[in-house]
Automatic annotation (TrEMBL):
PROSITE patterns: AA_TRANSFER_CLASS_5. Heterodimer of a large and a small subunit. It comes from Gloeobacter kilaueensis (strain ATCC BAA-2537 / CCAP 1431/1 / ULC 316 / JS1). Substrate binds at R339. This is Tritium exchange subunit. Belongs to the class-V pyridoxal-phosphate-dependent aminotransferase family. GO terms for biological process: glycine biosynthetic process, by transamination of glyoxylate. SUPFAM superfamilies: PLP-dependent transferases (SSF53383). Soluble hydrogenase catalyzes both production and consumption of hydrogen from suitable artificial electron donors or acceptors. This subunit catalyzes the tritium-exchange activity. The modification N6-(pyridoxal phosphate)lysine is found at K194. Keywords: Aminotransferase, Pyridoxal phosphate, Transferase.
Amino acid sequence: MDDKLFLMIPGPTPIPERALLAMAKAPVGHRSSEFARIMAEVSDNLRWLHQTRSDVLILASSGTGALEAAIVNACSPGDRVLVGANGKFGERWVEVARAFGLKPEVISAPYGQPLPTDAFQAALAADTDKAIKAVIVTHSETSTGVLNDLGTIAGYIRAHGEAVSIVDAVTSLGAANVPVDEWGLDFVGSGSQKAYMIPPGLAFLAVSERGWQAVERSRSPRYYFDLRGYRKALKKNNTPFTTPVNLVYALQVTLQMLKAEGLEGLFARHTRLRDGTRAAIRALGLGLFAPDDTFASTAITAVIPPPDIPCDKLRATLKKNYDIVIAGGQGEMEGQIVRLGHLGFVSERDVLTAIAALEGALHTLGYDGFTPGSGVAAASAVLFG
């Protein structure tokens, strides 16, 4: 049947019908007073979602653009920076830092394991000359399903006194608690196609007052991503360059939906979906690539299929038989894991549907290491118990 494709990947995520309808409206001028009123509401709600009183900038880019903008505006060529890397996206920020002439010092952990917070503490405490100018951390490592202990690491960054925090919250903002002001975070980047429940194309960057001081000190060349222009335009409820008007229409709607759900409800729902998914995977006798529940991402669950079932064949069977798309592994985990997304416009029904389809696909491919219905039963017990 046409038009039944369902995305259970870490992005793009499903989009509410009312957001799709909002995008279908004729655009107004992006410099008009009508659009400025929409931007004012959107800006207020972005601050609410980020739990901050500071600016939350809107960029026409992917989440990678927001993080590159933060790195370029916070740092200068030759700066020492700490970068946490325990997956594909942490490794990306090492590459970006090097591309702009920074000197990254990598704090790593094996794929599937959380970043060692004590290593950040030790490195920052040893920097008595305050040469470290920034610490770059991926909160939810999408490639492995690990949620790093950002709150603890942020405390060590604040104690350092000089370094600013640059946070990849692309799949955690809106799916996990990221209290920007409470944790003293300086640059927090995210993307529209994740928990914001709209298509790709917008990125968001919360910037603290300490962050703005770093922006003024930076000697890095910048133009489109010069955050000072975004701050100036935001005072007029606008952006310095052409704003994707129809994406902002959709964002206005989805932020209203998120606010109606409330922060506690939003985070609790994502936690339930994660826990239900993980319970089902265990009941099916499959492996969890990030086995420690304490550090499991609320956005994505990485699964180790049976050894005799190739990941690409499992994914293809789910798509062909059930019109459900799940993600494969990235980086060194390509072909070794599959990833089930459960963030954004996803409900308990969606998780149960995906688990039932996974059971069917496993059966089709000859796996008999589970009792039929056990995955759905385990998920149901968590989701509705």
